[in-house]
Protein backbone atom coordinates (compact mmCIF):
# COMPACT_ATOMS: atom_id res chain seq x y z
CA UNK A 1 0.00 0.00 0.00
CA UNK A 2 2.79 2.44 0.88
CA UNK A 3 4.66 1.71 -2.36
CA UNK A 4 1.51 2.11 -4.46
CA UNK A 5 0.53 5.45 -2.93
CA UNK A 6 4.07 6.80 -3.15
CA UNK A 7 4.30 5.93 -6.85
CA UNK A 8 0.83 7.37 -7.46
CA UNK A 9 1.64 10.67 -5.73
CA UNK A 10 5.01 11.08 -7.46
CA UNK A 11 4.00 9.90 -10.90
CA UNK A 12 0.47 11.38 -10.91
CA UNK A 13 -2.65 9.25 -11.14
CA UNK A 14 -3.37 10.04 -14.78
CA UNK A 15 -0.21 8.14 -15.71
CA UNK A 16 -1.48 4.97 -14.02
CA UNK A 17 -5.09 4.60 -15.26
CA UNK A 18 -5.36 0.95 -14.21
CA UNK A 19 -4.64 1.66 -10.53
CA UNK A 20 -8.00 2.86 -9.17
CA UNK A 21 -10.14 0.23 -10.95
CA UNK A 22 -7.81 -2.51 -9.71
CA UNK A 23 -7.85 -1.29 -6.11
CA UNK A 24 -11.64 -1.04 -6.15
CA UNK A 25 -11.91 -4.59 -7.46
CA UNK A 26 -9.62 -5.83 -4.67
CA UNK A 27 -12.11 -4.48 -2.11
CA UNK A 28 -14.36 -7.43 -2.99
CA UNK A 29 -11.67 -9.96 -2.11
CA UNK A 30 -12.65 -12.63 0.41
CA UNK A 31 -9.15 -12.34 1.86
CA UNK A 32 -9.33 -9.85 4.74
CA UNK A 33 -5.73 -8.67 4.35
CA UNK A 34 -6.22 -7.97 0.65
CA UNK A 35 -9.38 -5.96 1.34
CA UNK A 36 -7.68 -4.07 4.17
CA UNK A 37 -4.61 -3.32 2.04
CA UNK A 38 -6.71 -2.00 -0.85
CA UNK A 39 -8.66 0.24 1.51
CA UNK A 40 -5.45 1.56 3.04
CA UNK A 41 -4.07 2.49 -0.37
CA UNK A 42 -7.32 4.16 -1.45
CA UNK A 43 -7.49 6.10 1.81
CA UNK A 44 -4.03 7.55 1.26
CA UNK A 45 -4.80 8.38 -2.37
CA UNK A 46 -7.99 10.20 -1.31
CA UNK A 47 -5.99 12.24 1.21
CA UNK A 48 -3.19 13.11 -1.21
CA UNK A 49 -5.13 13.57 -4.45
CA UNK A 50 -8.60 14.76 -3.41
CA UNK A 51 -8.86 17.50 -6.06
CA UNK A 52 -7.91 15.40 -9.06
CA UNK A 53 -10.24 12.58 -7.97
CA UNK A 54 -13.16 14.98 -8.22
CA UNK A 55 -12.09 16.50 -11.53
CA UNK A 56 -12.63 15.75 -15.22
CA UNK A 57 -8.95 14.86 -15.63
CA UNK A 58 -9.74 11.29 -14.52
CA UNK A 59 -13.46 11.39 -15.41
CA UNK A 60 -14.39 11.95 -11.76
CA UNK A 61 -13.62 8.48 -10.34
CA UNK A 62 -15.16 9.48 -7.00
CA UNK A 63 -18.58 9.02 -8.60
CA UNK A 64 -17.79 5.31 -8.74
CA UNK A 65 -15.54 4.98 -5.69
CA UNK A 66 -17.73 6.51 -3.00
CA UNK A 67 -20.84 4.37 -3.68
CA UNK A 68 -18.46 1.43 -3.44
CA UNK A 69 -17.16 2.62 -0.07
CA UNK A 70 -20.69 3.05 1.26
CA UNK A 71 -21.32 -0.68 0.85
CA UNK A 72 -18.79 -1.42 3.58
CA UNK A 73 -20.79 0.23 6.35
CA UNK A 74 -22.49 -3.17 6.73
CA UNK A 75 -19.36 -5.33 6.49
CA UNK A 76 -19.16 -8.27 8.89
CA UNK A 77 -15.79 -7.09 10.24
CA UNK A 78 -16.05 -4.16 12.71
CA UNK A 79 -12.65 -2.88 11.57
CA UNK A 80 -13.70 -2.78 7.93
CA UNK A 81 -17.15 -1.51 8.89
CA UNK A 82 -15.73 1.56 10.50
CA UNK A 83 -12.04 2.07 9.95
CA UNK A 84 -12.51 1.77 6.18
CA UNK A 85 -16.15 2.11 5.10
CA UNK A 86 -16.85 4.84 7.65
CA UNK A 87 -13.59 6.76 7.36
CA UNK A 88 -14.42 10.44 6.59
CA UNK A 89 -11.21 10.91 4.59
CA UNK A 90 -12.61 8.52 1.98
CA UNK A 91 -15.83 10.49 1.57
CA UNK A 92 -15.11 14.18 2.15
CA UNK A 93 -13.50 14.73 -1.29
CA UNK A 94 -16.90 13.92 -2.81
CA UNK A 95 -18.81 16.69 -1.05
CA UNK A 96 -22.05 15.92 -2.88
CA UNK A 97 -22.26 12.53 -1.11
CA UNK A 98 -21.74 13.86 2.41
CA UNK A 99 -25.48 13.65 3.18
CA UNK A 100 -25.55 9.94 2.27
CA UNK A 101 -22.39 9.40 4.28
CA UNK A 102 -24.02 11.03 7.30
CA UNK A 103 -27.08 8.81 7.02
CA UNK A 104 -24.87 5.73 7.12
CA UNK A 105 -22.93 7.16 10.07
CA UNK A 106 -26.14 7.65 12.03
CA UNK A 107 -26.99 3.99 11.37
CA UNK A 108 -23.58 2.98 12.74
CA UNK A 109 -24.26 5.04 15.89
CA UNK A 110 -26.24 2.05 17.16
CA UNK A 111 -23.58 -0.52 16.24
CA UNK A 112 -23.00 -3.35 18.73
CA UNK A 113 -19.25 -2.63 18.86
CA UNK A 114 -18.34 0.26 21.24
CA UNK A 115 -15.19 1.02 19.23
CA UNK A 116 -17.31 1.54 16.11
CA UNK A 117 -19.61 3.93 17.99
CA UNK A 118 -16.59 5.87 19.32
CA UNK A 119 -15.25 6.32 15.82
CA UNK A 120 -18.66 7.47 14.62
CA UNK A 121 -18.36 10.32 17.13
CA UNK A 122 -14.90 11.20 15.81
CA UNK A 123 -16.24 11.29 12.26
CA UNK A 124 -19.13 13.55 13.24
CA UNK A 125 -16.68 15.97 14.86
CA UNK A 126 -14.78 16.09 11.56
CA UNK A 127 -18.05 16.80 9.74
CA UNK A 128 -19.09 19.52 12.19
CA UNK A 129 -18.62 22.39 9.75
CA UNK A 130 -20.25 20.54 6.82
CA UNK A 131 -23.79 19.91 8.06
CA UNK A 132 -23.99 21.18 11.62
CA UNK A 133 -27.78 21.49 11.52
CA UNK A 134 -28.25 17.74 11.02
CA UNK A 135 -25.63 16.65 13.51
CA UNK A 136 -26.77 18.35 16.71
CA UNK A 137 -29.92 16.30 17.50
CA UNK A 138 -28.09 13.01 16.98
CA UNK A 139 -25.12 13.99 19.14
CA UNK A 140 -27.39 14.67 22.13
CA UNK A 141 -28.59 11.06 22.08
CA UNK A 142 -25.07 9.65 21.61
CA UNK A 143 -23.85 11.48 24.75
CA UNK A 144 -26.29 9.23 26.65
CA UNK A 145 -24.57 6.04 25.42
CA UNK A 146 -24.28 3.37 28.11
CA UNK A 147 -20.59 2.91 27.29
CA UNK A 148 -18.80 5.79 29.03
CA UNK A 149 -15.97 5.83 26.49
CA UNK A 150 -18.47 6.35 23.68
CA UNK A 151 -20.31 9.08 25.59
CA UNK A 152 -17.01 10.77 26.40
CA UNK A 153 -15.99 10.75 22.74
CA UNK A 154 -19.35 12.34 21.89
CA UNK A 155 -18.63 15.15 24.35
CA UNK A 156 -15.67 16.13 22.17
CA UNK A 157 -18.25 17.29 19.62
CA UNK A 158 -19.58 19.91 22.04
CA UNK A 159 -16.09 21.13 22.95
CA UNK A 160 -15.34 21.56 19.25
CA UNK A 161 -18.65 23.30 18.65
CA UNK A 162 -17.86 25.76 21.45
CA UNK A 163 -14.90 27.00 19.39
CA UNK A 164 -17.12 27.85 16.40
CA UNK A 165 -18.26 31.48 15.84
CA UNK A 166 -21.91 30.45 15.37
CA UNK A 167 -22.01 28.24 18.46
CA UNK A 168 -24.51 30.41 20.35
CA UNK A 169 -26.81 30.72 17.37
CA UNK A 170 -27.11 27.00 16.59
CA UNK A 171 -26.98 25.67 20.14
CA UNK A 172 -29.71 27.73 21.82
CA UNK A 173 -32.64 25.61 20.66
CA UNK A 174 -30.94 22.40 21.86
CA UNK A 175 -29.96 23.54 25.36
CA UNK A 176 -33.10 22.28 27.09
CA UNK A 177 -32.25 18.72 26.03
CA UNK A 178 -28.47 18.97 26.18
CA UNK A 179 -27.92 20.52 29.62
CA UNK A 180 -29.72 17.78 31.64
CA UNK A 181 -27.72 15.11 29.78
CA UNK A 182 -24.38 16.79 30.44
CA UNK A 183 -25.18 17.64 34.06
CA UNK A 184 -26.21 14.04 34.69
CA UNK A 185 -22.75 12.95 33.58
CA UNK A 186 -20.84 15.44 35.74
CA UNK A 187 -19.44 13.10 38.35
CA UNK A 188 -16.07 12.18 39.77
CA UNK A 189 -14.77 8.64 39.51
CA UNK A 190 -14.14 6.66 42.71
CA UNK A 191 -10.40 7.32 42.38
CA UNK A 192 -10.99 11.07 42.00
CA UNK A 193 -13.13 11.14 45.15
CA UNK A 194 -10.39 9.39 47.14
CA UNK A 195 -7.77 11.85 45.86
CA UNK A 196 -9.97 14.87 46.54
CA UNK A 197 -10.77 13.68 50.07
CA UNK A 198 -7.05 13.34 50.67
CA UNK A 199 -6.48 16.93 49.56
CA UNK A 200 -9.22 18.20 51.89
CA UNK A 201 -7.80 16.34 54.87
CA UNK A 202 -4.31 17.70 54.21
CA UNK A 203 -5.16 21.39 53.84
CA UNK A 204 -8.61 21.85 55.38
CA UNK A 205 -7.18 24.30 57.94
CA UNK A 206 -5.43 26.39 55.27
CA UNK A 207 -7.39 29.18 53.51
CA UNK A 208 -7.89 28.63 49.78
CA UNK A 209 -5.52 30.59 47.55
CA UNK A 210 -6.45 32.20 44.25
CA UNK A 211 -4.76 29.29 42.48
CA UNK A 212 -7.02 26.79 44.27
CA UNK A 213 -10.32 28.38 43.33
CA UNK A 214 -9.76 29.83 39.88
CA UNK A 215 -11.87 28.26 37.08
CA UNK A 216 -10.43 25.87 34.54
CA UNK A 217 -11.35 26.04 30.88
CA UNK A 218 -10.88 22.81 28.98
CA UNK A 219 -10.27 22.89 25.25
CA UNK A 220 -11.27 20.37 22.62
CA UNK A 221 -8.66 17.94 21.33
CA UNK A 222 -8.74 19.70 17.96
CA UNK A 223 -7.82 23.08 19.44
CA UNK A 224 -5.17 21.62 21.72
CA UNK A 225 -3.54 19.80 18.82
CA UNK A 226 -3.59 22.96 16.72
CA UNK A 227 -1.72 24.85 19.43
CA UNK A 228 0.91 22.12 19.53
CA UNK A 229 1.33 22.13 15.75
CA UNK A 230 1.66 25.92 15.67
CA UNK A 231 4.33 25.80 18.36
CA UNK A 232 2.26 27.88 20.77
CA UNK A 233 3.34 27.45 24.36
CA UNK A 234 1.06 28.17 27.28
CA UNK A 235 2.30 30.44 30.06
CA UNK A 236 3.64 29.25 33.39
CA UNK A 237 0.22 29.47 35.01
CA UNK A 238 -1.14 26.94 32.53
CA UNK A 239 1.78 24.64 33.27
CA UNK A 240 0.93 24.83 36.97
CA UNK A 241 -2.66 23.97 36.16
CA UNK A 242 -1.58 20.93 34.16
CA UNK A 243 0.55 19.79 37.07
CA UNK A 244 -2.51 19.97 39.31
CA UNK A 245 -4.53 17.93 36.82
CA UNK A 246 -1.96 15.14 36.96
CA UNK A 247 -3.29 14.21 40.41
CA UNK A 248 -6.70 13.46 38.94
CA UNK A 249 -7.43 10.28 37.01
CA UNK A 250 -8.50 10.03 33.36
CA UNK A 251 -11.18 12.31 31.91
CA UNK A 252 -14.75 11.29 32.52
CA UNK A 253 -18.10 12.86 31.75
Plain-language structure description:
With 253 residues, the chain is mostly helical. It has a domain at 94-190. It contains 16 helices and no strands. Helix 6 packs parallel to helix 8 (114-126), helix 7 (98-108) runs antiparallel to helix 8 (114-126) and helix 8 runs parallel beside helix 10 (148-162). The protein is elongated. The two termini are 39 Å apart. Mean pLDDT is 73; it is low at 232-247.
Shape: elongated
Distance between the termini: 39 Å
Alpha-beta content class: mainly alpha
Radius of gyration: 22 Å
Pick out its properties.
253 residues; mainly alpha
Write the layout of secondary structure elements.
Elements: H1 2-11, H2 19-26, H3 32-48, H4 50-53, H5 62-70, H6 78-84, H7 98-108, H8 114-126, H9 132-142, H10 148-162, H11 167-171, H12 175-184, H13 190-203, H14 210-213, H15 221-229, H16 236-245
Question: Can you summarize this structure?
Answer:
The protein has 253 residues and is an all-alpha fold. It contains 16 helices and no strands. It holds the Pfam family HEAT.
Amino acid sequence: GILITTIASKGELQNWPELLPKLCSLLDSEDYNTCEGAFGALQKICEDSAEILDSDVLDRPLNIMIPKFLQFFKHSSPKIRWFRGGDPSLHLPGFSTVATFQQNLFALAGDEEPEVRKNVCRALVMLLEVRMDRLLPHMISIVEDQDENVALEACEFWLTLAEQPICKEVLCRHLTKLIPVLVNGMKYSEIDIILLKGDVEEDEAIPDSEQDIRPRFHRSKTVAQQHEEDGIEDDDDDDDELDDDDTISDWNL
